[in-house]
Design goal:
Elements (H helix, E strand, L loop, with lengths): L1 H7 L3 H9 L7 E4 L2 E3 L3 H16 L3 H10 L6 H12 L12 E3 H8 L3 H9 L10 E3 H15 L9 H20 L5 H43 L1
């Protein structure tokens, strides 16, 4: 423990707390008063400190990130998983990394508790943790409320989670096929490349396909009017 404290600059009580909540793995205990701590503690503590200082993430969100980055944790991997899980893909307010509890989200959106529960039940709003939201959730919640204000049933959008679930399953299958037989480091690089680019490809195709279909509808409508 003394060596870990010296290498990281973190105090003993904080390190023991990280172990208790599952952010750090249990050490190898050789006796009641002696334990050996893996070298990964140094990098893991560096990641925790970075996620807290740069993005103000709560510990349970950091724990989720650590669960995705595998046995060789690095700040670079943690940053990528943060971007994939929590960052927005489009223009938004400056505080992209802010988190909101349930009461704060209700206040910011003007929603009632029942309306928020309905959005989550329909899986049109998917918080990254229970009762914990970020700017992505805030923007989407406001957009969905505008949909409702235009007298469009939110229930009619239930096709979206189903289609996205199928797309994600296919994407994961594609990823698993792509990394088959690769070393762990190569596997991570391919995963990082695919995760970012597949989202980009999906957004691009969605925009283009939607434009194409709407253009067809407009042409069909104009022909009908001319007749």
């Amino acid at each position: 423990m003394r060596e870990i404290v010296e290498k990281t600059g973190e105090n003993k009580s904080t390190i023991l707390h990280y172990i208790r909540v599952g952010l750090l793995p249990e050490p190898v205990r050789t006796s009641k008063n002696m334990a050996y701590y893996p070298e990964t503690y140094v990098e893991l503590i560096n990641i925790i400190r970075t996620m807290q200082s740069r993005f103000f993430l709560p510990l349970h969100a950091i724990k989720r990130i650590l669960g995705f980055i595998g046995p060789n944790p690095t700040v670079d991997r943690a940053m990528h998983m943060h971007e994939l899980l929590y960052k927005m893909e489009y223009a938004a307010p400056d505080d992209l990394d802010r988190t909101y509890n349930r009461e704060e989200l209700l206040r910011e959106t003007g929603m009632k508790s029942g309306e928020l529960a309905n959005l989550e039940q329909l899986q049109l709003l998917v918080p990254f943790e229970k009762d914990m939201y970020n700017t992505d959730d805030l923007v989407i919640a406001k957009s969905l409320m505008k949909v409702k204000e235009n007298n469009i049933s939110l229930q009619s959008l239930d096709f979206l989670p189903d289609l996205v679930g199928q797309l994600v399953a296919k994407s994961v299958d594609f990823r698993d096929l792509s990394i088959k037989g690769l070393a762990e480091e190569e596997e991570w690089e391919i995963t990082r490349f695919l995760s970012g680019n597949l989202i980009g490809f999906n957004n691009y195709l969605m925009r283009r396909f939607l434009y194409r279909e709407l253009k067809k509808k407009c042409k069909a409508g104009s022909v009908e009017v001319d007749q």
